[in-house]
Amino acid sequence: MSSLKINWDALGITASLACAIHCALLPLFLTSLPLFGINIIHNQVFEYGMILLSFIVGTYSLYHGWKKHHHNKIPILAFTAGMLLLFAKQKWHSYEIWLLIPAVIFIVGAHLYNYRFCRVHNHAHDTDCDH
User: Fold this and answer.
1) Above 80 in pLDDT, residue 32?
2) Residue 131's pLDDT is what?
3) What is the rounded CA–CA span in Å between residue 115 and residue 85?
4) Which residues lie below 8 Å from residue 27, measured CB to CB, with a gap of 6+?
5) Which of 30, 53, 71, 110 is deepest in the core (most CB within 10 A)?
6) Measured between alpha carbons, how far is 121 from 90 in angstroms, rounded to an integer?
7) Higher pLDDT residue, 42 or 101?
């Protein structure tokens, strides 16, 4: 039986892009849902659930890349900035789009940097690397 290998950076990028699509396009297509008693737009439980999913996947992905491959803190710092902006978006709704756009750029950028740093052929292994 073959073991399933997950590319956590790809999953993180996909989750971040899914979040961006949700935040940008969902209101355009699903504005009629409240007529049917369904409200997922600005639903706090759903919003925090998406942020939590992004945080869990991103944290695991970036920690794995940092610990086992590149030891570069740039992806972690960019991800942290993006997550802080996502939480700020939940607090200050009137600035939602102005906080969301840089949040997505920071989070996706963090995963792209992590992916690139992990793929460098001559990356620096430290004594704590296990491969």
Assistant:
1) no
2) 52
3) 22
4) 41
5) 110
6) 40
7) 101
The two three-digit tokens of residue 77, written as one number: 């710092």
pTM, rounded to two decimals: 0.65
Instruction: Check residue 36 and give its pLDDT.
Output: 64
Mean pLDDT of 58-76: 85
Tell me how far CA of residue 93 lies from CA of 41, 87, 98, in angstroms. Answer: 13, 10, 10
Distance CA 98, CA 119 (A): 32
pLDDT exceeds cutoff 60 at 126: no
Report the 3 state secondary structure along the chain. Answer: CCCCCCCHHHHHHHHHHHHHHHHHHHHHHCCCHHHHCCCCCCCHHHHHHHHHHHHHHHHHHHHHHHHHHHCCCHHHHHHHHHHHHHHHHHHCHHHHHHHHHHHHHHHHHHHHHHHHHHCCCCCCCCCCCCC
